[in-house]
Amino acid sequence: MGAFAPVAPYPRDMASIALLPALLLLQAQDAPAPWAEVVSSALRGVVSIRSRIRYSVGRDEAGPFEGSGFVVDRERGLIATNRHVAGEGVVADLEVRFFDGTAVPAERLYADPLHDFAFLRFEPKAAPPDILEIPLDHEEPAMGAEVRMIGNNGGLAATVLPGTVSNLAAWWDQDPGVAYMQTSIASVGGSSGSPVLDARGRAVGLQTAHDDHNSYALPAEYLADALATLRSGMIPPRGTVGLRMRQIDLAEAVAAGAVSGDAARGLALQAGRELAVEPGAAAILSIVEGVVPDTPASATLQPGDAVVSIAGVLADDPRAIEHALDMSVGKKVTIRFYRNDVLGAVDLEVSDLHKEGVDRIALFCGAAFHDVSYEVRARTDLARRGALVSHVTPGSAAEAADLQRDDLILAIGGRPIADAAQLWRVFEQARHGDRLSLLVRRPASFDSATRLLLLTVDRAWDSARFLTRRGGRWSDSSEPPQSAPASRPSGAPASAPPLVPREPAEKRASGR
User: Fold this and answer.
1) Could you say which architecture CATH assigns to the domain 357-476?
2) Is the alpha carbon torsion for 382, 386, 388, 394 positive or negative?
3) 133-162 confidence digits (pLDDT tens)
4) pLDDT at residue 125 in the model
5) Burial letters 437-451, b for 16+ CB under 10 A, else e
6) What percent of the chain has pLDDT over 90?
7) Regarding the domain delimited by 14-231, which CATH topology (the fold level of the hierarchy) does it fall under?
8) Where are the beta strands (DSSP E) in 365-464?
């Protein structure tokens, strides 16, 4: 599932640039109307995105990469793309290039902490005057519907690829709980962030991943809801209780031992689905496949529990459940679930995912370290304590000590490390030539066993530095950092960076 393609040369001479629209229209000539018109119009809203990641976080890879994006608000200068294209770590350069070859700098306005999408902002006056917005569609396309993807596929700007919708409930392990749109589009690296268009020219999905046979797009409604909130001057709320769930039918719930046949039939009748106990029938439950460590649910729920409802929303609609959690950040919600054929209920406070991301990085001896974020814990089942290695510079003292990306630093010299801030304070006091004993867990290894590594401090590389992110921008911290509290408080959504001009708040969609 490639995300980026290495930076490929873009046409530099004006003659090549001028020929791009004509060449791309030739690709669409064999498509039945209205595809030629759809493609011709949409090309003016698709961009190539070039970035250079200095220090990686999450799915980032350090170095230069290209991805794709598309204009969703021309007046404000907003572009939709993937979070991993916008960059989760320290981005040294971020540039967008329009259909006519015009390149302008951009900045990350918003990156979703739960799903792989983001919005970039550019100066509208610097863009070509004839760029077009590509509207986002709340409605999912029909199975078998024809679609087109336009993007930086394989490093070739504005490539047009055809396909059909083959699944509306595909599951991707990097974003569990979301019904991805699967298409037959033959995309490769560099296409991440491309719009997947329907015959009306509306974006029904955001190209996010691919395998050898299919492509996978995040439904556009996720972006549309967030964009409406950003336009109102607020940051989209994102809440969680820490559950990884998958929809199941009642027959599977009975087979898993969560409910008995009688209880399943009772649930089916309550939902008005007399045949819902049959295999393959419509799902009305969600089974807990995992509980993220150090979250509200970790002390009460467990894998195998069959969830009936959350905050009064039936578990057959994951999008509606997500919306209910987003609207309940800092509040308690009731979760009804079956375990061993016993119906139970628990009240849990909803955590704020915006406070669970990576907003500080410690730099030392050629390596970068950050806190164990929610995204990492959800993917690896790691606890919150410790500091995670996100980057190791080749030839550095950190590489010589055999530190590797995704190593978890648990202790230094026998002293437990709670987070990146505490790790930085130890590094700051170390002198050139000191030898530090690091207790490390390597999650990617076969046994995930701990090991001791010996790091020889080399001040020739750099002094201990601590970077913090505020308002989307990274900078050296001028004050000693404080360690993270054991339990971070949740609150109301913060204000987003101002968008000028501002228009009235738009009503947020309540989900499918």
Assistant:
1) Roll (2.30)
2) negative
3) 999 998 889 999 999 999 988 878 888 999
4) 94
5) ebbbbbeeeeeeeee
6) 48
7) Thrombin, subunit H (2.40.10)
8) 367-371, 387-392, 408-412, 415-416, 435-441, 450-456
